[in-house]
Amino acid sequence: MASTLSLPAWLSRGMADLFPAGDGDDADQSLAARLRYAEHEGRPLRIKLGIDPTGSNIHLGHSILFRKLRAFQDAGHTAVLIIGDFTARIGDPTGKSATRVQLTAEEVEANSATYLAQLGQGQPKQTALLDFETLGRLEVRRNSEWLAGLDLPQVIGLLGTATVGQMLAKDDFSKRYGSGAPIALHEFLYPLLQGYDSVAVNADVELGGTDQKFNVAMGRDLQRHFNKGTQFGLLLPILVGLDGVQKMSKSLGNTVGLEEDALSMYSKLEKVGDGAIDDYVTLLTDLSPHDLPDNAREKQKAMALAVTASRHGMEAAQKAQSDAATLVSSGGDAGADVPEASLSAVNFPAKAFYLLSAVGICASSSEARRQIKGGAARLEGEKITDPNQEFASAAELDGKVLQLGKKTFRRLLG
Fold first, then answer.
1. Which long-range contacts (CB under 8 A, 24 or more apart) does 66-69 make?
2. What's the start-to-end Cα distance of the chain, in Å?
3. How many CB atoms lie within 10 A of CB 210?
4. Contact 264, 339 (CB under 8 A)
5. How many CB atoms are closer than 10 A to CB 249?
6. CA–CA separation, 67 and 410 (whole Å)
7. Mean pLDDT across the stretch 23-34?
8. Confidence band, pLDDT 50/70/90 cuts, at residue 131
9. What angle do CA 265, 47, 203 make, to 5 degrees?
10. Is the N or C terminus of the chain more exposed, i.e. has fewer CB atoms within 10 Å?
């Protein structure tokens, strides 16, 4: 990849790949030149980021792309956030070993609303992940605007811009084809439709994770096919999850959600493995890894504080840091700002495994049994050893802190 020295620091920070990455004054080959020409013309660049709302929660791994999109906004450019309400019904095959279940339009729209709320719609720009306030800095589009109206000849024309060989060269398709796993024909349409989004919105730059290079490149190819100006692909790393090994993914249980309270967020982040700390700082904060202490444990805590502060503000982050230390050492403190969990839906008398599931601290009763048997559950600092330990009433638990491992705390309210 060409040198990033000619790019502003806010743009090159954390960047994993840029294509094309030429130098010089060619605005079709050099992003630095495109920026210069746009400034000379008084025209903001159009920065595309497409999201398929196939779930309802955004985690810190997703937020890397939104942070870069916000950096472009703050530099005066126009963020074009595309809600893939049409493509979500197909589902991005990237990283999937099987055909995805297709969602209904109602499911997609419900997920879209929660995504926008988490990104800061209706919030002041100072506290929002994206700037929804400043005129000209954000377009929110739904790709059903242009995709739902394509007729069969247009779809056949799109299919004619790519070959089966190109599609099978895509790593995910190649692995599935090689293993004999079925590939539905409609899955080949996904990268073409996502690429057509770039044509429809006249994108100058498309943001994506490193696993999205094929799809982003398809957008550039289709822009050329339709005699449009071609976009640059700017790819960012995939964030490693809390386990320090695999990418952050809800299905792997190694995520931190954007909407998590400050204490839960801090408590999870301060356990991130040493090898991932510098990436977390670079990709999730405005600090440099060089700003952190050399001591490994203090470095973990400083990163956790900085990331939590980026979402909740420094005062809340410092309170979370203090509360986390108190809770781990004492199992609960009346002054600690612990997330609350209502006991109103719990049927008493209640066994311990059922309680952990009913208040949402465990995903299921079977998981709760495993956690208790593994010694991970505590009530007011005292280990719960018997999954069948019984609690007679809500009054017996009111105000007490239920703890799972060193990361999750809930103050029970009767």
1. 66/119, 66/129, 66/130, 67/129, 67/283, 67/284, 68/14, 68/207, 68/234, 68/236, 69/130, 69/207
2. 59
3. 11
4. yes
5. 15
6. 30
7. 91
8. very high
9. 145
10. N
Q: How far is 357 from 374, CA to CA, in rounded Å?
A: 16
DSSP notation for 190-218? HHHHHHHHHHHHT-SEEEEEGGGHHHHHH
pTM of the predicted protein model: 0.81
Considering only residues 33 and 254, tell me which one the structure prediction assigns the higher pLDDT. Answer: 33
DSSP state of 130: S
Residues 6 or more apart whose Cβ sits within 8 Å of residue 255: 59, 60, 61, 241, 242, 248, 249
Q: In 3-state terms, what secondary structure has residue 17? A: strand
The per-residue pLDDT of the chain, averaged, comes to 88
Residues in the chain: 414
Residues 170 and 191: their CA atoms lie apart, in Å, by 10
d(CA 327, CA 337): 10
pLDDT tens, residue by residue, 144-162: 999 999 999 999 999 999 9
Residue 383 identity = K
* All residues at 6 or more sequence positions from 100 whose CB lies less than 8 Å from its CB, including other chains: 54, 90, 91, 92, 93
